[in-house]
Amino acid sequence: MSALNGLKFVSAKRPQNVAPIVQRRNKLSNQLFEQMELARNLGEGKVYAPTRMRSVKDKYTGERKLVEAIKLVKQWWFVAENGRVCLQIRYGTKVLELAKGKNSIDVGTVGELLPVLETVKKCVENGELDTQIDAASAAVRERFEK
Description:
Largest sheet: 3 strands, antiparallel
Shape: extended
Distance between the termini: 60 Å
Order of helices and strands: HHEEEEEEEHH
Helix content: 25-40%
Structural class: alpha+beta
Strand content: 15-25%
Number of strands: 7
Strand order of the largest sheet: 3-4-7
């Protein structure tokens, strides 16, 4: 019991619903984190291969079991025709239009990629890209309604 005496106990209630825009921000923020890890490992010469648990049905017994599978993370940056690195921010499969008619960020070199990704992640968490996220989310929902 002496170990419990050092803890602070409170009466708290977990919020039931999170606003949809906050859920979308968190989703994009998690995707940006994966891109940052991909860029960081690329700079160090390592391979970034996150794993996730996947449910697979055994073809002999018919039972479902969880196995660890490698998650495919595609890089959002590419080298443009002028030789400079460009970064496109994606929400699902949709590329966000960051400014009127502009869908990518001119990064310059691969070495400058990580600070740009960190800046974009801060912007997402502060809600500066909410209108772009809403537009991309609406486009994704529209595809499901067909």
